[in-house]
Amino acid sequence: MNCIIPAQNTKVLSKAISALAKVGDEIYLEASRGRLKLTTLNMSKTVCAQCSFLESFFSSYDIKESELTKENKETLTCKLFMKSVLPLFKGNLEKKLDFLKIEFSTENDFIVFKMKYKFDQIVMIHKLRLMDLETLSIGIASSSGNNNLCASSSLLNQILSMFNLTDGEITLDIMSSRLIARNYYVGAASNPKLMRCEVKLGAGEFFIFDVKDETNINFALKPLRTVISFAETFNLQVGINFECGGKPLTLLMKNPTFEIHFIVSTLNPNNDAQSSMSSTSLPMSTQKTRRNLNITLEDQQALESENWDNVMELGNTSECGTNNNSFISMMNRANSDRSNMQRSKSNFYDKTSEFVVENSDNYLDIIPKSPESPRSKRIKLVFGRCYEPTICSPNLGQEIYGNSDSE
């Protein structure tokens, strides 16, 4: 394979490689008829980025047919270290180079980059050792989802400016006529250091807003920031293709000479919210008790500790007209036990300032009043001289020390 990239297109290639470097540590090169692909994958295999340069991107693009048909292949493939490729594309190459030439053959274990500079007719040759002759198969089409959005890079950049740089995820609630972007999802554990942000956008803000199935998706913000940064450099529109939460989302940028798309794994925040809410919510029996019964805490504990079997027996005998006084005495004894419990609790609260949790099965948290802080003696010791009188009436007009000057 021999291809020549003109100087004005070297900026696109360098920015594309820099974007791929933010995703993975290895770069896969695939040369086929009509296009050259650069692909990378992160370590956790949750983000895949691919840049496709069409034949019109090059001033010369040639692949030997014998290399393609030798092993019944349709592409020439190889793998390189990202750290070995990045140093070649630093700086403003479009102002320094006349052209960049890439040479690769299956018979060699290295790839050659030839840079022809404008001044002094300098040609710099870089030979990079290959890792392996293998390819990376994605298996996911960029237009596999049934929901499609398209917006300008400036609009998406304004949305990201509402979020903090420390935010790692974004949640999108996609409806038929609007989109809501959040840096959190409902039901997640609250973080006191996180400032919750929410941005609402109507369908008119997008160039394309084709939503067939309303859904919620959650994915990482890092690939989205990388895509928006690249799109702003060349004033490109960003397309978003997805199906639902839990299935891959595609961020797509197109140009007449090249295409770049990022495939990002997503989560369904509704499933995560249900699991987190079920672990933190109160039992249904406790919620019904607090909602339907308007009684005090002491009354509720007295009712729970009472033996209702004996009370029901006494109630049944009172209906027959017998032993009604013993039922009244039973209720009086319960009231006296409740008052004794209340007095013992009040005495306990006066002696301690710790939190008391009683009957954890009922989820009843009792928080007493904070005790008054004692007056500090250290303050009086340090600032004690400030409270002493500075002028004494008996000493007024009395000479305590004589003149220091002998004259």
TrEMBL record:
GO biological process: cellular response to ionizing radiation; DNA repair; DNA replication checkpoint signaling; mitotic intra-S DNA damage checkpoint signaling
Source organism, top-level taxon: Eukaryota
InterPro entries, per the entry: DNA_clamp_sf, Rad9/Ddc1
GO CC annotations on file: checkpoint clamp complex
A Pfam family per the record: Rad9
Protein name: Cell cycle checkpoint control protein
Species: Henosepilachna vigintioctopunctata
